[in-house]
Amino acid sequence: MKRQFVAIVLIFTIGLLANAFQGNAQHKIGYISLQELVSAMPEYKKAQTDMQDYQKALVQQGNDYQQAFMDKQKSYAADSAKWTPAMKEVKKKELNELYIKWTNFVNQEAQQMMNQHEQELLAPIQEKAVTTSQAVAKENGYAYILPKEQLISFPAADDILPLVYKKLGITPPAKDAGAKK
Asked: Where are the beta strands (DSSP E) in 16-159?
């Protein structure tokens, strides 16, 4: 998610810079934390809930694969004495395939599915955050909007996050009393 987010921020910044270079007038520069914006959006909260549900489903699937393997292993241990060597080989191969399926799911497939699902859920939310930020920047005469996370020093007056919150109808989250700016 961070790589995708950084890419979106970079595209957003480049777009605004290219647009700003078209004129020769004095340009206002602002900044925004898209991470803060996205995490405050109601759509993000719903996406987080969806992700938790999806993760639970993947964990259950992994548990089902594990149980199937354990059941097959018990059956193999109990019945292998009465099987022919050829039958043992076939059943052992089935057992190994089930083990590989289970471990691949737990070690790789579930994480890939989780990442893909997260990307599908977050892409429209991030797009909405960028589009709204661009609109607010244009409405308020900002030629450049930079990612806050990339800045070392910045004046509070040029933070467009409150303006974007207002445009989206979002109540800004309460700041922690001990939080640094």
From this structure: 28-32, 142-147
Give the whole-angstrom CA distance, residue 53 versus residue 10. Answer: 31
User: What is the tens place of the pLDDT at every residue in 115-139?
Assistant: 999 999 999 999 999 999 999 999 9
Q: How far apart are CA 14 and CA 8, in angstroms?
A: 10
| Tokens 């964990």, located at residue | 59
pTM of the model: 0.70
Per-residue CA distances from 153 to 61, 148, 156, 181 (Å): 48, 9, 10, 10
Instruction: Give Cβ neighbours of residue 50 (< 8 Å, ≥ 6 apart).
Output: 117, 121
The distance from CA 62 to its chain's CA centroid, rounded to whole angstroms, is 21
How many CB atoms within 10 Å of residue 99?
Answer: 15
Res. 159 pLDDT band, cuts 50 70 90? very high
Whole-number Å distance between alpha carbons of 92 and 99: 10
pLDDT at site 173: 86
- Statement: residue 9 has pLDDT above 60: no
Residues in Cβ contact with 69 at an 8 Å cutoff, skipping those fewer than 6 apart: 95, 98, 99, 102
